[in-house]
Amino acid sequence: MPTFGIQSKYDMKPTIEIEYCPKCGWLLRAAWMAQELLTTFQDDLHAVQLRPSEVAGRYTVTMGEELLWDRKREGHFPEPKEIKQRVRDIIAPDRSLGHSDR
After folding, report:
1. Mean pLDDT over each residue of the chain, to the nearest integer
2. Is the pLDDT of residue 4 over 60?
3. How far, in Å, CA of 43 to CA of 15, rounded?
4. What does residue 55 show for φ and ψ, rounded to 5 degrees?
5. Do residues 2 and 34 lie in contact, with contact meaning Cβ atoms separated by under 8 Å?
6. Contact by Cβ (8 Å): 55, 23
7. Each residue of 31-71: pLDDT tens digit?
8. What are the CA-CA distances from residue 51 to residues 31, 35, 68, 89 (Å)?
9. Domains of the chain, CATH where assigned
10. At 38, is the secondary structure helix, strand, or coil?
11. How many Cβ atoms sit within 10 Å of the Cβ of residue 53?
């Protein structure tokens, strides 16, 4: 149904995408990260999407066009606090993440 130029409240909230290698067995890791992000940013995100990659070994986290994490570039999988800090720095730089800021 067309909205005729009217934006919903969800249009302004970002979507995070976690692209993971299903052949590597990384679905549970991606789902866990999605749960962590949705718990921390439940009022700030439109969605967290999981996307199986056709590229072997890929594990990336993006928000819109912004690459937040690339496992190959960073050399390791992200810890939840690392991704939470990067998301926070973009959508709410003044927000405290409590123990995730330590």
Report:
1. 90
2. no
3. 12
4. -95, 120
5. no
6. no
7. 999 999 999 999 999 999 999 999 999 999 999 999 999 99
8. 10, 15, 15, 24
9. 12-101 (3.40.30.10)
10. helix
11. 18
